[in-house]
Structure formats: C-alpha cells, structure tokens
Amino acid sequence: MRLLSTNSNNVKRAEAKTYKNIPPRLRNHAQAFRTAGKKFQVIAEQTTDILVPYGEGNDLILDLNGELYEKECPKLLRKAQQYLVSVYSGTLKVLEAKDALIQLNSGVLALKSGYYSSEQGVCADGMISMEECFV
Q: Which one of 48, 52, 80, 116 is least enclosed by Cβ atoms within 10 Å?
C-alpha cells in the first residue's frame, strides 16, 4: 500500500543514492505505480456463472434447455450473458445441496425459480418472502 501513497522507503533510497534531498513538491509524486502493478494480485476466489430466472432469463432457460440447433446456440448464449450472476463456491454448494440448480442441455447452469429476487439477487435459502433473506 505504501507504494501507492508516500513510498517513503524508495524516496529515502533515492536520496541516499543521489546524495540529494528530493524537493517536497516531488515527494508528493513518488508513487511506484509500475512496481505496485507488478506485485498486485487479485484474491483468487472461484466463482461460477448461473443463469437466473429473471425477465427474459425465464425464456432463455427454456430455450437453452430445449433442442438446440447449431446456429441458435451461440446467439442464445450471447443473449443469456446479461442474465448471468456469479456465485462463490460456498453459495454454489448450498444451492446444489438444496437442489436449486438445473444443468441445461446447452451446458449452462440455471437457478430454479424461487431462489432469485430482483431486489436481493440469489437467495440460497429460497424465496418465500423478502424477510426470509435477511434472517
């Protein structure tokens, strides 16, 4: 984090190497963006995309689970992208245990109705009422 703020360690090294003090106006611009970019790592968390029964997602689930013709599938999959949500592995396991997922004929994983709300998103406990998602 220090690389993107004051970067004081490298400022001191530069001053020692050049035997000069870095002017205060330049000290405010001593961030090491290239070094920080090289060292940056995204937290590795496995997610899975699930097609949700929301809006046109309902029809897409039916279409992608029916008989697909070679030219139709890519078009339907592209359209389905806006109805996909990513869930973490823990949520995926809960949904699998509750039998809330369907593997469609197209290979896409879909959420059964009753486990998605437009207000809250995926609710692994099922959706009888909004209050139950908060319990």
A: 48
